[in-house]
Structure formats: C-alpha cells, structure tokens
Design a protein that fits this description.
flat, 736 residues, alpha+beta
C-alpha cells in the first residue's frame, strides 16, 4: 500500500454518569487516537481529571524514583500479575522507606569514601618524602614549601635569590621539600625565589602523626567503607529481587490509571454531558461501536463523523458521506440535553454526515500500511518525517530502490554474506530500531551477494581465478579493467536518475491533485516532460558530432555487443531528438506558468544537476572495487598469464610461468614465506574490513542522499502525526 491506512473520525457523546466506564472501555480497546477539544463551543469546557488522578500521579513519580534507585529493568519483572490499588497503598510506603534509608546510607558512605580517597591522595606524596608532618609547618623563622618540581632548578633559583640566607632541600621519588631561612627575617623570600620556576605546591595535611601511620589509618578506613558499601549494595540487590516485580507492575497500573484519569482533559464537557472525538482505522468502526454499546447500552451516542478517504482524483478528503444509522432507542440521548452548535459547511469546522460538528479540524493520524518486508524501510522515510495522511508513503519505493542500488555499488559475494551476518545479529536485538536496521542490512546483503555473483567476485577476486566456474557468473563487470563497462554504468546511472526523478514528480502530481489537475500538472508533470525531452535529445543523433562517443554513435555504451548482444541502441533518430527538444521547451513553458521565474531558475539544477548526481552510484562502485583490488594486489601481486590476461598471484595460479608485474607479500623471494604469511593474512583481513566498513558508509550515505535530496524533494513534505491510540500495551500486569 502506498497510501496510509484509511481513518475515520468518531464522536462519543453521553451523560457525565457514563464517562468513566466509557473511558475504561475505550482505553481497554487501545484503538482511538483522541483529538483535543479546541474550546470553541459555548457551554462546553475542557474536562477535569477524574478524582484520584493527583494521588496516582504522585505515587507514579515515587515508583519511578524507586526503580531508578534500584536500577530496575523491564526484563527483571517476572511473570505478569494483578496488582490492586489496595496493595500499592499498603506496600509502597514501606518499600519507599526501606529503599530510601539504604540509598541515604549509601550516599553517606560514598561521600565519606570520596573524602578518604582525597586525603589518601594528599598524604601519599609526604610518605614518599619521609618527613613527619609536624616538621613541615609551624616555624617562625623558616619558610617551608612541599611540592612537585625540578630540584636542580629550585636550588639554582635559591642560590640567586638575595633574600635567601640559607636553604635545605629534601627529595623523594616525585616530591621535594624546601626549607629557607631568609635574610634579616625577610618575608616571602621562598615565594620570590620560586617565581618563574615550575613548581606545584602541595598543602601539608593538618596532623601530627607520621605520614606512614596516617596513610595506613586512611587505607584501613577506606576498606571499612568499601565493605559497608558492598553490604548496602547487596541489601539493595536483595530488595530489588524481592520487590522489583511489584514495582514494575505498580508503575504499569499507575500509568494506566493516570492515563485514564487525565483523558477528560481532551473532552468537551458541560455540567451534564461530555463529548469526545478521535480517529480510528475505518475498518474497525463496527467493532468500536459494538464494544461501547455492550459496555453502557443506549446511554451513549456513537457516531462516525468523518471518513478520511481519497476522491477520484487521489486527494484526501475529510467529508466522505457516512450513512446515518437509526438510533437503537427512541429515547433522547443524554448528550442531546445540551447539543453543541452546528458548524458551518463553507470552510469552517468539518461536519459529519449526520450533522454533528467536529471539535477540531485536525488531520487524521498516520498508520503506515506497508508490506511486512518493506516495513523496516519506514525508518529511512521517517528519519526525514512521517508522511502526511494525504501523501503517498514512499516506503515501498525506498524498499525497491535502496538495497538494489547499495548491492550494485558493493557487489561482492563475501561482503554480501558479511552484511547478511550483521543483519541477522542486529535483527535478533530487542530494540525495534536495531531490528529495523538489521532487516535493512539483510536486504542490502541479499542484493550485494546477488550482484557479487553477477560480477563473479569474492573479496574482490574473480571466482574463475580460483577455479570456480558458475553459470551466469561474470556476465557483468565493475569496470576496473573494462572501460566499456565504465561508460555503460555512467549511462545506466543517468537513466536510473531520469527514472527516479520522473517517478518523484509523478508521485508529486498525485499528491497535489487536491489543487486541481491543471495546476498539479503544471507544477509536476512539466518537469517530467522537460527532463525526458532534454535527455531524449541528448541520446539522439541530432548534433551527434558534438556529443561524447559513448552516448551516441557506433561506439555508444548502449550499442556494445561485448557487454550484451541485445544492446544495439546507438541513438534516437535526429527527428526524435528534435521532438525531444520541443518537449523540453514545452516543459519549460509549463514550469514557467506553474512555478514562475523561480522554477525556471531551478531548471539547470533539477534537470541537469540532480540527474548527474546519480553518477555517485558508479563512482562508489569503482572506488570500492579499486580499494578491494589494491588490498589483493598487496597480498597476491599481479601477473600476466600466457594468454595476456592480468591476474592475481593466487595459490591456484602457476606464477612461475607468468610475467610478474608486481610481487605481492606472498611472493617476495628475499623474505621467508613463514614470516610473510601472517603479515599477508593481517593485511588481507584488515584491508577488507576497512573496505567493508567504508562500503556501509559510502554506499549507504550516498544512496540515502539520493533518496532524500534528489528523489524526496520532488514530492515529499512529511509532517504527519503518528497514530497513538488511547490505551496501554501491558507488559507486567494482567487486566484487572
């Protein structure tokens, strides 16, 4: 499906007395994407949270805080269970007290342990120095400094300082103590001497004990604190195991309670009635109506207001006729006691088929309805933005183009199998995002392997050089040793670009049909006409002498029997080329009418620049092939066989009978083979890992760019709202 799933806007109206059971029923269905009341109706206000909402919110905050302290994960919950409000009220306070006490004790120990570590760091240099702490301070006539510095520089500075009468230095392995007796009790003599000297002073700890004794006491205290911390961690782990399941179940129940109790904030309510609106998949409307009628009977009015669909022109509409149904009861609905005002039908709020006004002119949320195999590629699309409800979802097109082009650019059986292995590993992850990336990697691996087979390459080595001959292997070439194929891929990339850009504008035409066929055609199809007309002329015989030979003429890339016998296209006739040139002019006129001067200014970029941007594809193809070739060249070398073919010096080749062009690591006669082999293996493995990773980045990034910039820019805006139904997917609790 290229369109999002069809959605219907529904209205639920009833008396305030049935609001809570209606909320509970709708929540349990996990189906309705609620619309917010915009406050536009006289006599109707936003609803207030149901009683108990504030208490549930406070308890939910408490539970989440406890989970954070205990470092509790979802997978530690155990089996689902029923947890009642009474159980939460009875047990939560006790658990909170116990957890907080342990956490507070742990914080106190951490703080003290940090202080002890700081004191240990401060005392260790003085142990190295070997002087009692009380000897390093408290003098009236001596100035003392302890720190890190070069003792020779310090002594030289002290010798030059005129205010220093005498000095003495004591050194350890990494620290020096300086004692200075100043001249005539001059103050600051030591400080003056150390100016300009690289000296990091240390503060002398306030203690009369020997540094060794002090350090031993600190380390003993550190050990005691670590033991206490481990004991608390063990108690917290035991408590986590004991109450973890309860806390996760309580969080889920409280989250559900808060979600339910705050639902009226989105409703329109009066003293006696309420009205709620939201979007549901159209195909589930009957199920929705039946569930509500079974829950509250005839005290509720359920109506399908709007069915968002596509008219015959392909544009989304919010006003498809919905046949009214007879009321199940002739009694007046409670909602009719205070009927909301009817909305205008001439551009005001949308009006339902039964005449009921919608609360808000909101767009339907988007449910992307893609085949399972294409669904992972929604991640690529949604990275830009989720498609709007009125837009064609390009996921399927991305699925068809992205892995195909990626595989074409890398094209190697071994690389493809490694991408497949990476995809399997990612797909087994519990993360939905990683699973999507894994699926994308799997598809890229499939096409990389497929093209690798057609290229006949295994780690950049032709399989026939290994003595492996398979049907259809090697029917195409990357072009490293075949200029004809290089030209062919250049032309093929341009043709692929023309097809992608044309498809983009055609999709844009369908998306814009809501503005009218003529306007949409001028804004979109004019580009298709101009683009294809221009390149029909390019690939024609008109003025052929001024065009490159690989485009038109007897040596054209599409007229090369060495590549494929069926390629016999040497250019359109001159008349067809002139028709193409005329179409190009017609397209320009349409662009000018539809988009004005700006469109004409953008023509060179869109027609020429964006098309040639697809030359990135053969550029990456050649670059990756060249890198793999260089790795193999370094390892195996290059030789010319008896038939004049250039081959690698593989173990399957009789290189003694060949002319050596370049001796690889495995064939250097001056070095023992036993020494060369591990080096060659290392170069081969690291080199191909490097090529493999660069393949992911270069081929992946370039194709993503072509999708986002060249292709999406022609039709895609995005900005759709994700379908988020009012409900909860239970993991830790059963329905209570």
């Amino acid at each position: 499906m290229l369109r999002p799933e069809q959605m219907s806007k529904v209205s639920v109206a009833g008396s305030r007395t049935v609001m809570e059971p209606v909320i509970e029923t709708v929540h349990g269905m996990n189906l309705v994407h609620l619309s917010d009341y915009d406050g536009s109706w006289d006599g109707f206000e936003h609803g207030d949270p149901i009683e108990g909402s504030e208490d549930a919110s406070e308890k939910l905050v408490t539970v989440r805080a406890l989970e954070s302290i205990l470092d509790l994960d979802d997978d530690e919950a155990g089996p689902s269970r029923i947890v009642s409000q009474e159980e939460i009220d009875d047990e939560l306070d006790g658990i909170q007290t116990e957890v907080n006490e342990l956490d507070d004790r742990r914080d106190e120990i951490r703080d003290e342990l940090r202080q002890v570590n700081e004191r240990i760091e401060s005392i260790e240099p003085f142990v190295d120095l070997g002087i009692d702490l009380d000897l390093l301070r408290g003098y009236d006539s001596l100035e003392v400094r302890v720190g890190h510095g070069d003792v020779e520089e310090i002594e030289a500075a002290l010798e030059d300082e005129e205010t220093v009468d005498a000095y003495e230095t004591f050194t350890g392995d990494e620290v020096v103590a300086v004692f200075v007796y100043p001249v005539d009790d001059a103050e600051g003599a030591l400080e003056d001497a150390l100016v300009g000297i690289e000296f990091a002073a240390l503060e002398v700890p306030d203690s009369d004990r020997a540094p060794e004794t002090f350090l031993a006491e600190l380390r003993e205290r550190k050990g005691e604190l670590q033991d206490q911390r481990e004991q608390i961690e063990a108690e917290l782990a035991e408590l986590k195991e004991e109450v973890g399941g309860f806390l996760l179940a309580a969080e889920e129940k409280l989250s559900i309670d808060v979600q339910r109790s705050e639902a009226p904030l989105q409703f329109a309510t009066s003293k006696r009635a309420f009205i709620a609106e939201g979007w549901i998949p159209t195909e589930r409307y009957d199920e929705f109506e039946t569930e509500l009628q079974d829950a509250v009977g005839n005290r509720l009015e359920v109506e399908e207001l709007v069915r968002a669909d596509y008219n015959e022109q392909g544009h989304a509409t919010h006003a498809e006729a919905v046949e009214p149904e007879e009321s199940a009861s002739e009694e007046q609905s409670p909602a009719e006691e205070e009927e909301p005002p009817k909305a205008a039908t001439d551009g005001g709020q949308p009006v339902g088929a039964n005449g009921g006004a919608t609360m808000m002119d909101d767009s339907p949320p988007v449910v992307q309805d893609n085949p399972d195999i294409a669904e992972p590629f929604q991640m690529i699309v949604n990275t830009v933005n989720r498609p709007k409800y009125s837009e064609i979802d390009p996921t399927l097109i991305v699925f068809l183009s992205f892995p195909f082009a990626f595989g074409f650019m890398i094209g190697d059986i071994a690389y493809g199998l490694l991408y497949l292995a990476l995809g399997v590993a990612l797909y087994r992850s519990e993360s939905v995002g990683l699973q999507a990336m894994g699926a994308i990697a799997l598809w890229c691996g499939v096409f990389t392997t497929m093209f690798g087979y057609l290229y006949d390459e295994l780690f950049g080595i032709h399989m026939y050089e290994l003595g492996i001959h398979l049907p259809f292997a090697g029917v195409i070439s990357k072009g490293i040793a075949s200029p004809d194929f290089v030209n062919f891929w250049l032309v093929a990339a341009v043709l692929f670009g023309i097809a992608m850009l044309s498809l983009g504008w055609i999709v844009g035409f369908v998306n814009d049909l809501q503005h009218g066929v003529v306007e949409s055609g001028l804004e979109n199809l004019s580009w298709v006409v101009a683009l294809n007309g221009f390149f029909v002329w390019v690939f024609s015989q008109h003025l052929a002498s001024g065009k490159p030979g690989f485009i038109v003429g007897p040596e054209a890339a599409l007229n090369n029997g060495d590549i494929a016998g069926f390629l016999t296209f040497s250019g359109f006739p001159e008349t067809v080329g002139l028709i193409g040139l005329g179409l190009f002019v017609v397209g320009l006129v349409g662009i000018g009418i539809g988009e004005g001067g700006i469109g004409l200014i953008e023509t060179p970029a869109y027609i020429f620049g964006h098309t040639l941007s697809f030359l990135r594809i053969p550029a990456v193809l050649l670059a990756k092939a060249g890198m793999a070739f260089v790795v193999n060249l370094l390892v195996f070398g290059e030789y010319v066989d008896a038939e004049g073919h250039t081959v690698f010096g593989l173990p399957t080749q009789d290189i003694a009978a060949m002319d050596a062009q370049f001796a690889g690591l495995l064939h250097i006669d001056a070095v023992p083979f036993a020494l060369l082999l591990p080096i060659a293996i290392l170069v081969f493995v690291i080199g191909h890992i490097f090529v493999l990773l660069l393949g992911i980045t270069s081929a992946g990034i370039q194709m993503v760019r072509l999708e986002y910039v060249e292709f999406f820019q022609k039709f895609y805006e995005g900005g759709g709202e994700k379908y988020q139904p009012f409900g909860y997917d239970r993991s830790h609790t059963t329905q209570d």
